[in-house]
Amino acid sequence: MHIGPYVLANHVFVAPMAGVTDRPFRQLCRAFGAGYAVSEMVTSRKELWDSLKTSRRADHTGEPAPVAVQIAGTDAAMMSEAAAYNVDHGAQIIDINMSCPMKKVCTKWAGSALMRDERLAVGIIEAVVAACVPHAVPVTLKMRTGWSEAEKNVVSLARAAESAGVQMVAVHGRTREQGYKGAAEYASVAAVKAAVGIPVVASGDIDTPAKAKSVLDATGVDAIMIGRAAQGRPWLFREVTHFLETGRVLAPPLVLEVQRALLGHLEDHYALYGEYTGVRSARKHIGWYVRGLPGGDAFRQRMNAIEDAERQWRAVADFFDELAARHERLPRIPVPADRPPAEVGAK
After folding, report:
1. Domain span at residue 274?
2. Is 132 found in the same domain as 39?
3. Is the link from the previous residue into 64 a cis peptide, with omega within 30 of 0?
């Protein structure tokens, strides 16, 4: 499939997650087979654009095309200006966030809260598209199914977005009211696919190759997005694409391959964030990688007390050396049902 002029490598995408899908993580997922990745959400508040947090999120150094940036906000003029700002800083696709369910975002009537005010939502979409058209930059939109079970309006908003010039919509199969509780439903996603002519992407609870195929088959969508299930499992994209192409399940990755991936991830992470912030923000990633592995809980407790990059990197290397001495391949572990949502906060 394609978004505007950009032909994507496949139809298995990385879902944008604030505090997770930074440049090092996006590049790692792409290396493991993801066909497309969208940045963490960037605020439309101009006074925060020079903040360290936003400057890191706007750093696309070495990132393969297309560079897609997600923006969030509640004012059409501000969102238009944010789109133009990010295009000037290298964005080749602009994605509008109307899917984040977290209170920190929704209390400001951004994210999925915009779905309660369709007039405002459509005004924002039109303003962003108008800002991007002169630069030939496609605009995409990520939504939930609605505010609540009684207020599901994703189909009408998808139609309005298509009419306004949006070139792809992604739908997470939960309402804002659900947050990340309960199970995602895909009937609403299928209804969107039937209602519009632009590409539609399904998101929510896609955590195994078999689940990916079942969602594609049930909805007829053009692509799927994987989010929380890829935390600590970036090779999931390779497993999913292989299963969709062949119908066969790949063996788990070699322990030493996982070690190389994680150590490389840490090096890129330290380079982006610096040692002080990098060591602390890397802890969650390391915790996701070792979760469920033999000795993983005890290691995570020890690792969380380490405060310098060299010792953290060495501790991770030693942990996987010891694991590789006992297991050639990563032991199979169940997908955690209680995986926490990504950190939220666009600054």
Report:
1. 255-326
2. yes
3. no
